[in-house]
Amino acid sequence: MRIVSGIQPTGNLHLGNYLGAIRNWVRMQDEVTATGGESLFFLADLHSLSDHIDRDVRLASVRDMTAALIACGIDPAKSILFNQAAVPAHAELCWLLNGTARMGWLNRMTQWKDKAGKNREGASIALFDYPVLQAADVLLYQATHVPVGDDQKQHLELARDIATKFNTDTGVDLFTLPEPFIPPAAARIMSLRDGTAKMSKSDPSDMSRINLSDPDDAISQKVRKAKTDPEPLPSDPMGLAGRAEAANLVSIYAALADSDTATVLGEFGGSQFGPFKAALADRLIERITPIRERYEALRGSPELDRHLQDGAARARAVAAPTLARAYDALGL
Ligand code: ADP
Ligand code: NA
User: Fold this and answer.
1) Are residues 178 and 234 in the same domain?
2) Which of 12, 63, 145, 238 could staple 181 via S-S, CB 3.0–4.6 A?
3) In this predicted complex, what is the ipTM?
4) pLDDT per residue over 97-125, tens digit each?
5) Which ligand minimizes its atom distance to the CA of 9?
6) Residue 184: which pLDDT band, with cuts at 50, 70 and 90?
7) Any idea which of 40-49, 116-125, 149-158, 235-244 has the lowest mean pLDDT?
8) Which of 78, 165, 201, 227 is catalytic?
9) Domain span at residue 168?
10) Distance between CA atoms of residues 131 and 24, nearest Å
11) Ligand 1 contact via 151 beta carbon (within 6 Å)
12) Are residues 23 and 145 in the same domain?
């Protein structure tokens, strides 16, 4: 088993990134490496070209995100941790796959449609081609499994289509078709200010999200001020219907407790939000404080560059044979 996943090095990590993605990476890393497989995680700095980001900001973000991932439990001794730009094979294979990918396939990508909006003419080619680079990211390493959230399933399907067409067109059985790995409790964490919007770094209100860099008192305050309704908590999950904010807080609690909403409501059903929020804040602080402390200790450390250089060297070695075969299959 070989798993590959990437994350854009933009901004701080928030609770949604942690519970929806990074925590599963850590679990998979531990499982995969315990059974003789490999895990590769990368900072998707080439992908970040589809946004306007200042040079120095991009440089710092890659290092900060590396520190954050290590603080969350990604272990450079277990996983291959690197930034995409340090492994030129990503960009090279993307270009080779651009000969295989079809305009029509990319035009159907909902993320492209959402992000380009009405301004297709003004959108960058990088934004349009983003899913092809993503295909290269995983095919390059012959990934067997790719952890994907809901929003990325369509892109993984596309990667499989590209791999199939490349293999068929060239007659070379080169690329492994990666399987989606959808984590069991694929938590989708919503904003603390609006239970119908995703918790996101792009929300202008900092009160809408819990950042992994938030001090304890900020965590408590954000939970205390989180939007709720006047009813007490229901005693079973059915009672959460139509109560998006309450449902979100309960599912955050369940995710942190490695439990489920029914169990959490078994404990807190009938209770007012005051005591429940206090218990939730305690759980959050218990989880986030050690991550924040490790992050602060690592941030700015020269150790990060060493980890990234080492990870990139290992990634280049894994990628090299597949890239060479791809060139050869195309007569290049
Ligand atoms: P953001 O939405 O804050 O810009 P990204 O798009 O950079 O976050 O997502 C990074 C990773 O975190 C992705 O795997 C994504 O699925 C996951 N993720 C982001 N926001 C959430 C959320 N609110 N709930 C669950 N997972 C999330
Ligand atoms: Na996003």
Assistant:
1) no
2) 145
3) 0.94
4) 999 999 999 999 999 999 999 999 999 99
5) 1
6) low
7) 149-158
8) 201
9) 2-187+302-329
10) 22
11) yes
12) yes
CATH code at 118? Answer: 3.40.50.620
65 lines ligand 1 (CB under 6 A): no
Label residues 260-277 b or e (16+ Cβ within 10 Å = b): ebeebbeebbeeebeebb
Ligand 1 near 237 CB (within 6 A): no
Q: Which of 78, 115, 165, 227 is catalytic?
A: 115
118 is a catalytic site residue: no
245 CA to middle of ligand 1, Å?
18
Residue 90, domain member (yes or no): yes
- For a mutational test of ligand 1's pocket, the pick from 3, 7, 17, i.e. the residue with the most ligand atoms closer than 8 A to its C-beta, is 17
Instruction: Kindly state whether residues 154 and 22 are assigned to the same domain.
Output: yes
Q: Is the pLDDT of residue 58 over 60?
A: yes
Residue 196 belongs to a domain:
no
What total of structural domains would you count in the chain? 2
DSSP code for 194: -
CA–centroid distance, 15 to ligand 1, in Å, is: 9
* H-run or E-run covering 328: helix 303-329
| Residue 215 lies inside a defined structural domain of this protein | yes
Same domain, 175 and 81: yes
Helix-then-strand count for the chain, H and E:
13, 5
Give residue 288's pLDDT.
Answer: 98
- The model's pTM: 0.93
- CA of 330 from ligand 1 middle (Å) equals 36
Domain assignment of residue 193, yes or no: no
Write out the two tokens for 126.
């990088």
119 and 166 part of one domain: yes
Domain co-membership, 281 together with 317: no
Q: Which atom of ligand 1 is nearest to the CA of 199?
A: 23
Closest ligand to Cα 185: 1
Q: Are residues 36 and 50 in the same domain?
A: yes
- The 3-state DSSP class for residue 246 equals helix
How many residues are there in the chain?
332
